[in-house]
Design brief:
Strand content: 15-25%
Number of domains: 4
Oligomer: single chain
Mean pLDDT: 83
Shape: elongated
Amino acid sequence: MGVIWTKVWFDLWHNRMRTLLAVLSIAAGLFAVGAMFGMGDLLTTNLDKSHKEVVPPHLELGLGQMVDRDILLDLVNVPGVEGVDPYCNVSISYKVNPNGDWKQGIIQLRDYTEQKYELVQLRDGNWPKKGELGVERMAAGFLNLGAGDKLIVKDGAYERSYPLTSKIRHPFVPPPQFMDLAFFFANGETLERFGVPDGKFNAAFIRVQPYSADYAKEVASAIKDRLAKQNISVLGVSYQDPNKHWGRSFFDGITLVLQLLASISVVISAVLVYNTLSNLITQQTNQIGILKAIGGKSGTIIQVYLSEALFYGLLALVISIPLGAVVTFAMTQSFLGLFNIDYNDFELSTFAITAQIISAILVTLLAGLIPTMQGAMITVRQAIASYGLGSDFGSNWLDRLIEKIGARLLPAHYATALGNMFRRKGRLLLTQIVLITAGFAFLLVMSLNSSISLTLDHLFARNHYDSTIQFTGLERTDPIFALANTVNGVDKAELRLIQSASLLVKGQLIKDAGIGASIEGIPSDSDFFSPLIIKGRWIQPGDGRVIVIKRDTAEKNHIEIGDIVTLNLGDLGKDTWQVIGTYEPVFTGNFSGDRIYAPLESLYAATKKHNQGSMLYVRTKDHSAEAVTAVTKQLKELFDGRKHNVAITATEPDTRKTNEFQFSTITTMLVALSVIVAIVGGIALMGALSISVVERTKEIGVLRAVGARSRTIIGIFLMEGVLQGLLSCVVAIPLSFALGGPLASALGQAMFGAKLDYAYNWSAVGTWIIIMLVISMVASILPARSATRISVRESLAYA
């Protein structure tokens, strides 16, 4: 046993470069497994843990007016309601310094000492008292605010300065870098200055008992019916799963794809293990023959070389486990930070480490088994007769065709490189699989990126407006249009009515999205917006009570074009409508809700809210980001000044920028994994060429003997590496073109919940060819230089 381990150690240490390359290649794959599986594990665990800690409500009501606390608390008498926690949101305009720009924000009122659900948590200072405000801690970091600073808030025509006395964490707010919206907190006495009487609220968190998603919807319907009898309108209902964080929908598909790529990188690393052991066994064929001659058994040989393979895996673990753990923690911390979750204590993912250990052992042993068994089966005669000349080349039609092509198109020594490449077809196939996979992955990711851009182009091309302004309540059409038309730069505006609704099929509530459903009235002659229609048609002039619904909603509830359904509009009653079309929302994930579209005139008739609306769509004359932002700002200030209170504004350029930022984070990780695969491919190519050098030792000696210079020998091996790289491109490019569309569509659905408009990235083809040429040449340098060091005497002594 001591002799065996001495042999193993000698091989590992004596060929340090080969050992290093094998270990780094395996470590790259294991690192990807650790980072991606670890991130998925820790993200899911900590998202759900944080979610449960704040006691999430099962449903959330948004009301159309201020309501007494007692009326909301009385909802506990509705069958199924476990508890009610009222709160109030008020939209404001604020700025952090006198010379700064006005920004949009929300002040939230909570009963801070008696919170029940969706708990806000004090992080610094004290709960706000009369005349004080607290700032949401993500907004505090983004705006560089803290306890002791002052906030200037617009109050009609006046400006008031409020001291900030605390930083507060809210578990359900958008990251300020994604949306120009900051949250602040106040008590009831402070909120009276904003026109909210003490004891009045416009929203409530509610839990049901026993909980189920379907039962929560039933209870919500009963609550809306109860409030309707008191002439209280419900603007919207959203739902939450108490056991799963709402952010899970953003990560489940993404982490699945990343883990799949990481697994592929491990499989590719296995090819390098195969090539490395093939190289070693080829180089030591004479040693195996000697061992056999003196009585060595096949089991001993298998033990030696599989032990070396296992050592490669164990050494790779030493690198990959700590590196993967650090990167996992950093990525998890970054993503959790976007969801306002503290994650400061370093944590290891046992699931990821287990996956790394199993991969390291199984991959290296299985990959090393084939060349090891081949080496163990070599007879003494075969070992002694092996000269590394590759004398079998030229024995079939493919070899002869390759020789003819090389003779016609390439100089003699480069033609030799072409023939050498096809000498060991099995090894060539394995190396090509690695390089083709790397190229295919890179081109697929880049095409995914271009498809996202094209889908965004098409999405925003269907939106023929530049900004939206949402009011806190219903506004009359005429005064809003009159004010909007006074702002220079406004081309056209539409005020739409949006109403909370429940869709019923045969008297049963549908399985709608987690954020609930609402109906939006569209002027039948509007050219502002047209969604991606899947079946049926869009709204046309002359339509009556017709609606267009989400494709997913229609499929889940078996609704067909032409079906008659019932819309429950709460306090406004129930009416029957006909489904004329289904549409596909784009880049809305699982958090968009079910938006139902109907002719505005028909919605007016159903709701009796003629010439009223809460959402203003604006088209500007100049569509540049600067012009749109300026016009939207002027409109908001004008409306607020005339007591048409604005809740929130959004511009199309900012929305697009936010989308691009979100997607770039994901595609960057995908590109990084593709680069890891490419690096592993380069190392695999280097290993294959190293074996070629060993096999052709005598050939190199013959070339030396007839006067070949080092430059010629280097050129042969460099050309062989470049030809291998180019051959992989010849296969990877058409393969990615043929399969890229279906795979990009599947990836888009899995990661973003969207059907992508496919665009093959032709510029990435040129980029990949250049990358492949560089990788091929760099991978060929070391084997080529080692070939030049072989003397005539050494080559003739090789056997």
